[in-house]
Amino acid sequence: MKWSQFFNTSIGKKLLVGATGLFLCSFVLVHLVGNLQLLKNDRGEAFNAYAAFMGHNGLIQFIAWGLKIVILLHAFVAIQLTFSNRAARPVKYAVNPGNQTSSWFSRQMAIMGSILFIFIVIHLAQFWAKFHYGDMPTQTYEGMAQPLKDLYAVTYDAFQHGWVVIIYVISMIALSFHLIHGFKSACQTFGLNHKKYNGLINFIGVWIFGIAIPIGFAIIPVFIFFQ
Amino acid sequence: MEHYNMNLTLKVWRQKNKNDQGGFETIPAKNISSEMSFLEMFDVVNEGLISEGKEPIAFDHDCREGICGACSMHINGRAHGPWAGTTTCQLHMRAFKDGDTITVEPWRAGAFPVVKDLVVDRSAFDRIIEAGGYISINTGNAQDANNIPVDKHKADLAFAAAACIGCGACVAACKNSSAMLFVSAKVSQLALLPQGHPEKDSRALNMVAQMDKEGFGSCTNTGACEAECPKEISLTNIARLNRQFIGAGFSSEK
Question: What integer pLDDT is reported at residue A145 of this predicted model?
Fold first, then answer.
């Protein structure tokens, strides 16, 4: 079987979705750690220095563009699979089992993924595009030769609006629901289903990626709003 | 357990043939014993329909002891009805109460077209088996027992996978109409044993290719198949199929 055939099979496509999904899981972890610097009460010194580093380091920029391709690939293949999966049942059941046979989260991957995709577009437009291509205020800190782009202030401004905070919190709920099933599911797709590791996979998938990380992200806009 | 009689209302899918649109028909089922199997209840209803000069409800059945995989009905939204690890023929009417309305539908999947009423064409499964679900040994006498050592644990796993009766409940239960549980059981049962091991790579590749060709959906790991399987085939088989398929795909030279 050639690579082109392999990645065109149902399992091959699922591997693409799973691999890109796990890469995105590693990204959200790193992204959260960086963003938590927004909660520091230092006029944005740590966060802005971090943003400047992330925005100019060649390797980070290379990964950042790769990340956008990965998001598009994840979405594209997942949408393709979703449509072919729907097409596999042309006549629907009159009565469905609901939560009796599968978890609610596992059946909402496409809808949660779509919410997240829209969120990512909004989020990039709001901060990434502005940081790289828009008008940015600057801030000078003691001991620094040049002023830094003040992404910290832009973020604080953005989260003064209640509706922005609500969009972010809803999106993080979608992230939670997506990852509660997504991490475990990706492991199963890679064939990792073993008594000795299932407990750990479940813990990481549900509690770390599904609950702790989305809460960590959601705290930031809520905290800033009530500052 | 107390024996009781009940009157039920059946909402049954009626469809004359493959090309007919089909629709639900409401049929009363009177004086049904709690000790009947679900199929025996259908027999009683069909006797009534025949005596009224109506067309009886067509449904698949054969052994009626839960081992052949012929019976195939979606009962109140559940493949093979509400009991876990049970085929429709082993589902008994004590699962229902007097006055219940029971909705009965055929398996719904593009790869399983309805032939008539509750009967679907499951020959897609046969074609998947033809694609590699066998061992290519054509001649010769049976070997002496214990000529080939088999690890007990692996033999048990292979036996558990071989319990699959190919009824199609996994496809029927899956929101994607995926046949992964079926294919994984067939692949596992052979690959785990020394006799099936030599052909494991081509088997995994060919059976998955045929599965896709038949128009089954892909697996999103919801676990509905495992929950509905009358033989309680485990999801670990799907993980094994994935491992075999990945290994075979990465190493195949063709």
Answer: 84
- Domain of B59, in residue numbers: 5-115
Determine, yes or no, domain membership for B204.
yes
pLDDT digits (tens, 9 = 90+) for B66-77: 999 999 999 999
Tell me, what CATH number does B159's domain have? 1.10.1060.10
**Closest among B214, B16, B235, B227 to B109, alpha carbons compared:** B214
Average of pLDDT values for B104-130? 98
B109 contacts A95? CB cut-off 8 A: no
Closest CB to B249: pick one of A12, A107, A188: A12
Rounded to whole angstroms, the maximal C-alpha distance in chain B is: 64
Q: Which amino acid appears at position A71 of this protein?
A: I
**Which residues of B are less than 8 Å from A103 in CB distance?**
222-223
* Torsion angles phi and psi, residue B53, rounded to 5: 80, 15
Instruction: Give CA angle at A206 (A197, B188), nearest 5°.
Output: 40
pTM of the model: 0.94
Q: Which two tokens stand for residue A121?
A: 């577009």
For residue B69, give how far its alpha carbon lies from the nearest alpha carbon of chain A (Å).
Answer: 20
Which chain A residues have a beta carbon less than 8 Å from that of B220?
81, 85, 106, 109, 185
Q: Which residues of B touch A109 (CB under 8 A)?
A: 220
Q: What is the ipTM of this complex?
A: 0.93
pLDDT of res. B1: 67
CA distance B178 to B20: 25
By C-alpha distance, the chain A residue nearest B75 is: A95
Assess contact for B176 and B218: CB atoms under 8 A.
yes
